[in-house]
Design goal:
alpha/beta, Spore Coat Polysaccharide Biosynthesis Protein SpsA, Chain A, single chain, 7 helices, two-stranded antiparallel sheet
Length: 239
């Protein structure tokens, strides 16, 4: 079974909108969340979809979904956690309780505010996770990465050829992810304090392969990003 978790639990403070979290803002004629959801509804290998939403917006999310076609996919809305890692953990708990976790079951976790994910990226994530246990989408950076310990002084300039910018999806064999989450609990690693689940996954002894992303697989964080996303949508003739 292949599950997709659309991570929509953020409140979007950088969008400077108090009335509506950014995942619900319009992109063209539809909310950003719906554009992203449709990518997974349309994918033939995805069996079930979970949307992890802010608790205060869970009912709103369910009402919103009622107006759109899920293309025959079962969609479940969950209340999310404090960060991406905790929200993925909540999705794993839901899957285990409702359907159980089989040896080859896979979870694709994707930011709701990355609405331009392609079918190729989703396919490559599934293939890599099935072959190696986990995958993460990334792009080699065009800029040098600077490290500063205090935000004022340059501490380190890592080798540019080793630097990649993370995107999503990140995709896991569910059994391997459960093992990593158990390892975290045994070692006092609280998911609320672990913003990057791939770091924890690798530190627990598991392998994670990189999948090539796309520059247009952008994350809509602020008003400028939304302007760029609308321009990209218009260029593609989308609604």
């Amino acid at each position: 079974m292949i599950y997709a978790a659309v991570l929509a639990a953020g409140l979007g403070v950088r969008m400077h909108r108090r009335d509506l979290p950014k995942q619900f803002l319009p992109l063209g004629e539809k909310p950003i969340l719906i554009h992203t959801l449709e990518r997974f509804c349309a994918h033939p290998r995805v069996d079930k979809i979970l949307i992890v939403a802010p608790d205060a917006w869970k009912a709103y999310t369910e009402d919103l979904l009622a107006g759109y076609d899920s293309m025959g996919k079962e969609v479940t809305v969950l209340s999310g956690g404090a960060n991406k890692s905790e929200s993925i953990g909540i999705a794993v708990e839901c899957i285990e309780e409702r359907w159980g976790i089989g040896e080859r079951d896979t979870l694709i976790a994707h930011d709701a505010i990355r609405p331009f994910v392609t079918q190729r990226i989703i396919d490559d994530n599934i293939d890599a996770a099935e072959a190696h246990g986990a995958a993460n989408t990334a792009m080699r950076t065009n800029d040098a990465i600077l490290v500063s310990e205090d935000g004022l002084r340059l501490s380190e300039v890592p080798d540019h050829n080793r630097m990649y910018a993370e995107q999503t999806p990140q995709t896991y064999n569910l059994r391997a992810l459960k093992e990593a989450l158990s390892w975290a609990a045994e070692n006092g690693r609280d998911l609320r304090g672990e913003s990057e689940l791939p770091r924890l996954f690798v530190q627990s002894g598991h392998e994670m392969r990189l999948v090539r992303g796309e520059h247009f697989n952008m994350k809509i964080i602020n008003p400028h990003d939304l302007e760029v996303a609308n321009a990209l949508l218009r260029e593609r003739g989308g609604a």
